[in-house]
Write a structure and sequence with these properties.
homodimer, mainly alpha, 7 helices, 0% strand, Formintransfe-cycloase-like_sf (chains A, B), Cyclodeamin/CycHdrlase (chains A, B), MthfCyhylase (chains A, B), methenyltetrahydrofolate cyclohydrolase activity (chains A, B)
Chain lengths: 213, 213
């Protein structure tokens, strides 16, 4: 990684090489964030290619509003590539703490629990942002420029893959939490994000597929 | 794009900026190739973190074989980011040919048909490679190191999103083909790739989810 504080400055090839390697990061969490960010970017693209076109003047206001939201989500999801690395590194560092004395054991266990909470909330935030991309995609697939409507379909597929991918990291980290109240609350939030997303993804995909066929 | 012959040398941030912009490329086809390449890379990662571990010595031979295939697929899919740009640019160039005389009109129409065939085969090749990633993911999810098994789940989700995303571009370009025999043959191949992929994706996701929960 050329700049650890900003893995988005890594090249695509470099990121993929890192992903494939045995290095602990980047991993699936970073891939999930990129999937979500690609989804948001593609919604922005469809908006940008619809706004200003005479044929689409009636939906211009709606798409301008969506563009503001999709660009904010893209920035948020791009930042999450770094958040995932940071959260993962903190978990690894906590497991690496000394455990020679009882005092050290207690401190290590407490630290592990602390960083596991962050490592549960980071992918959950990714799930939330991906779900927002999916929700925005519905209107874009309905109202966007027909010449690039397939990109609205790719957007929803990417965001849905990002949501379900990040969900796996929520499960992994929530499982290790002693604070079951915290864990169950996060898992409840996760199911609320996941539940409607599958049917919505299929609905939007079918809308797009019907337009391109 | 810093180097048009190799968009994989673009930074992630630069690629996302280009995707979100009103520039014609990169678009959904490039995003599909990246999704597939991330899927292949994550399978390689799980293989790399399983091979050489005492606990997994029994599956080491299988995972070494898979690693060879996943790395070949990763290289192929990474190259397809450029293929998509090239195919799209060729279509745009053909539509931009002069159409003043009857001779020009005939030549332009023939060129459009020629490049649309390529623009159908390029995303179809992406679909095929993504499907191969999905097929490989099944064994990785079963045999891979449990500590990183969630990454096998992210791999299959990414590859499946890549497959369905590229499929939309096959539909778009096949629709414009006058040679219906060619088009129908490609659409038949596409359905054979897509059909079993959905159930397989869900099956592998459930295998992984059960292991991380």
């Amino acid at each position: 990684m050329t700049d650890k504080t900003s893995p988005a400055n890594e090249t695509i090839q470099g990121f993929l090489d890192g992903l494939a390697s045995s290095a602990p990061t980047p991993g699936g969490g970073g891939a999930a964030a990129i999937s979500g960010a690609m989804g948001a970017a593609l919604l922005s693209m469809v908006c940008n290619l619809t706004i200003g076109k005479k044929k689409y003047v009636e939906v211009e206001g709606d798409l301008k509003e969506i563009l503001g939201k999709s660009e904010a989500l893209r920035a948020e999801l791009t930042g999450m590539i770094a958040d995932d690395v940071e959260a993962f590194d903190a978990v690894m560092a906590a497991y690496g703490l000394p455990k020679g004395t009882d005092e050290e054991k207690t401190a290590r266990a407490a630290k592990i629990q602390e960083v596991l909470k962050v490592a549960t909330d980071v992918p959950l935030a990714c799930c939330r942002a991906c779900r927002q991309v999916i929700d925005l995609a519905e209107a874009v697939a309905e109202k966007g420029n027909l010449n690039v409507i397939s990109d609205a379909g790719v957007a929803v597929l990417s965001a849905h893959a990002g949501l379900r991918s990040a969900a796996l990291n929520v499960y992994v980290n929530a499982k290790g939490l002693d604070d079951r109240g915290f864990a169950e609350e996060r898992l409840k939030q996760l199911e609320e994000l996941l539940g409607p997303a599958g049917p919505l993804n299929e609905k939007i995909y079918e809308v797009v597929k019907a337009k391109v066929n």
